[in-house]
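This part of the workshop introduces the protein records we will be handling. Getting from the letters to the tokens is the skill we practise here. An example says more than a description, so a record of this kind follows:
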Amino acid sequence: MMQMNEPQTCYDIVVIGGGINGVGIANDAVGRGLSVLLCEKDDLASHTSSASSKLIHGGLRYLEHKEFRLVREALAEREVLLAKAPHIIRPMRFIMPHQPHLRPAWLIRTGLFFYDHLGKREKLAGSNLVQFKPETSPLNKDITRGFEYSDCAVDDSRLVILNAIQAREKGANIVTQTRCIAAQRENAVWAVQLENEQGVYQVQAKVLVNAAGPWVAQFIQQDLKLKSPYGIRLVQGSHIIVPKIYEGDKAYIMQNDDQRIVFAIPYLNQYTMIGTTDREYHGDPNQVEITQPEIDYLLKVSNDHFKTQLVINDIVSTFSGVRPLCDDESDNPAAITRDYTLAVSQQHSAEAPLLSVFGGKLTTYRKLAESALEQLKKFFTTMGQPWTAHALLPGAENLVSVEDLISEIQTKIKGIDLPTASRWAHAYGTYVWKFLNYSSSVHELGQSFGHGLYAQEVDYLVDQEWAITSQDILCRRSKLYLEFKQDQVDLLDAYLLELHERRLQKDVA
């Protein structure tokens, strides 16, 4: 990390925000030969990017709002991302129970025809009609038929982290727990002030990229003291997690009387994730939490569809995120465009440009990054060509199949259980050998914190994946947070504190 007494560094691009759009832009830019610094005030993916429905999807419901460009781009991206990161992204079949009073069958069939044919589809199967048998269906007996189609599931926070790792491998400087507290234009560059636990330091940037997500407009107004080119609407989306309410690996997309849809998605083998909601949010994005009306809403939608009837005590966990959507003055939060808007602000040609990202969704992050770099091409005339479409993300190299990798881990690491081998293979792909390489038995992996988390993995996450706290590791790196009891969390916290102190002493020495 840059110390405060180091000479000031001038980067081509400084990116503010370590969510999916920020790391996507940083990764694309550094791969084209630009020098890049990305700063994130908290942990990577710690806000909107880890609070998604964990889908790479075309957005079937966006067709109703005539978002054809967005849907076409998202549909095509499913196949691109599936090829880039098959360890963290997998195809999933979705079942839409038919509710004739909400949408007629012909309308859904038409929508699914577009869905099958708007984007390039090679790996994913097309849609079809399904009939439900009352004795075997998990759905209420009055739901007798529906439609089935394909999309993909993703580990959202790992998608962010893998992009950040790739960016760092290509030469980007990625710093977390580092806030941009101010930036001013000085001649043809930005003077950017950054603050971390060691104090305040300054870097320069030829271009400043504002990918602050829910804080995008606030950053322009408060930290840059400029006028935001667009308004932002914050829309809260919340999910509940319950013990699994049906068997099998398919997701359900449930239509509701308010014309919204809610997903029920298999989650971490033993749970069902139900969401999302859409409500206007006016509070602090750092403090977003599920509300009682949202809980009631999600329970009702699920109970209207499934035989397994849920009550509030069934909820194991909840999470909420704030989607920063570009204000299109829509009356209905569900109808606000999910498309992204990129705004380049520059008063005159000699002035350092600011590129701000409004909106966007997980599925189209790579295309958003390409669009951002296209906008910045005129400032960097020697910049390289687009490269991310066919570049594998870290861990996908030499990956024959996740199943083969799981077998290989179990063969090489004596005594490792299947759930842990499976978690490692899906989270790290072939990068799992970066922390398992010299081990041949579970007894060589260091202190056990429970549920297949060992010191060797924790050390790797701290050294190579910017993890600092137990939350970083349990919620965003490993998804073990639902299994850990408080005493196990305390044990991990104590280990991380000791690790941090050891590293500080080493730095001083």
Notes: Residues 1-7 have pLDDT under 50 and may be disordered. Residues 86-153+233-334 form a domain with the D-Amino Acid Oxidase; Chain A, domain 2 fold (CATH 3.30.9.10). The chain has three domains: 10-47+158-231+338-390, 86-153+233-334, 402-508. The chain is about 30% helix and 25% strand.
